[in-house]
Amino acid sequence: MKAAQIHLLRRPKQLSEDVFELVTVNLPPLEDGEVLVRNRFMSVDPYMRRSMDESGADLDPWPIGGPLDGPAVGEVVESRHPGFRPGDIVESMAGWQSHFISDGTRLEPYLSPNTAIIRRVPQGSLGVRDFVGVLGIASQTAYYGLHHAITPPDHGTIVVSSAAGTVGSMVCQFARAAGLRVVASAGSDEKVRWLKEVLHVDAAFNYKREAIGDALARLCPDGIDLVFENASPEHFSACLPLMNYGTTVALAGFVSVYDSGGKVPNIENFEHVLDSFLTIRSFAVTDYAEHYDLFVQRVNALRERGELVFKEQVFHGLAAAPRALCSLFDGSSHGKVLVDLET
Ligand SMILES: NC(=O)c1ccc[n+]([C@@H]2O[C@H](COP(=O)([O-])OP(=O)(O)OC[C@H]3O[C@@H](n4cnc5c(N)ncnc54)[C@H](OP(=O)(O)O)[C@@H]3O)[C@@H](O)[C@H]2O)c1
Predict the structure, then answer these.
(1) 71 Cβ below 6 A of ligand 1
(2) Does ligand 1 have an atom closer than 6 angstroms to the CB of 281?
(3) Per-residue model confidence as pLDDT tens digits over 220-265
(4) What is the domain count for the chain?
């Protein structure tokens, strides 16, 4: 049995497609207790850029010249494991490859307490790719970040950066549903238009066209009551002087620093954290897995009422996975970036 895999050729200073290669490997025949899985969809996520570095914070570095990892959903095609049958849909962290052999332990979902979704047959309006799409880690980050990592205010203005991305767009919608006034920032006029016309945020601006501080002062006349930060130290810093007393920044990440070693330069305006008694709350999606069922119910309820917009950008074929990852860092991505491995 042959499998296609994407390998890393070297650790890049700057992300580009040519640091990856597509290889074909031979998989051995199955032994007792093993299953063969054909991947159907894989997710690419900003954190993967940190996995390419020798030391990417809490992440194990990806090997040079070996199989990479990442969220994927696939189908069991052959089984000598008592717990799996051909046709079972399984979530794994064995993305970046067409097929893989597992002894069952690698078929744990990304969030280990999520055993409920292993082999869950797609039902209702949920499809196979939703396990790495609308129900994937980015959407979970939005939900847990807004509703569990912090206590959101019951009214007032939330500012969301990288708002047309997966986490950002879900935060905008959860926040609107929670009664907050949403001010969104994104890196193109097209994304800003989409945020206003499709997501119906209250205000949005293109941070590449207008100084962030000026835009926020214009759009947040009563100050800011919550920031959901996805993008950059510059965006974070610009929010601080406008934040109301005792309010919070939910810090999901700074995508802007991942392609330059992850180091965060000096934060400007930090004195406002002290003067206004602000809370900066960073969090890991993996810490909230106990709320997964609630999250699925919430997503399903919004979806079934036609109140959830989930934009996906699907790349086709494993060979397109490096391009898909690069799209997260050159601003060309819009919404959840997935790779369909069947086409
Ligand atoms: N804490 C956790 O457990 C956890 C889990 C998942 C994700 N996250 C974090 O959540 C954030 C959003 O993740 P996501 O999956 O939804 O990704 P995303 O926002 O869809 O990421 C891609 C977008 O990031 C923006 N971007 C790229 N380079 C940038 C730069 N140099 N400066 C400013 N913006 C830049 C671009 O949008 P524009 O065109 O609008 O600039 C791009 O389209 C990331 O920081 C990620 O690391 C955290």
Answers:
(1) no
(2) no
(3) 999 999 999 999 999 999 999 999 999 999 999 999 999 999 999 8
(4) 2
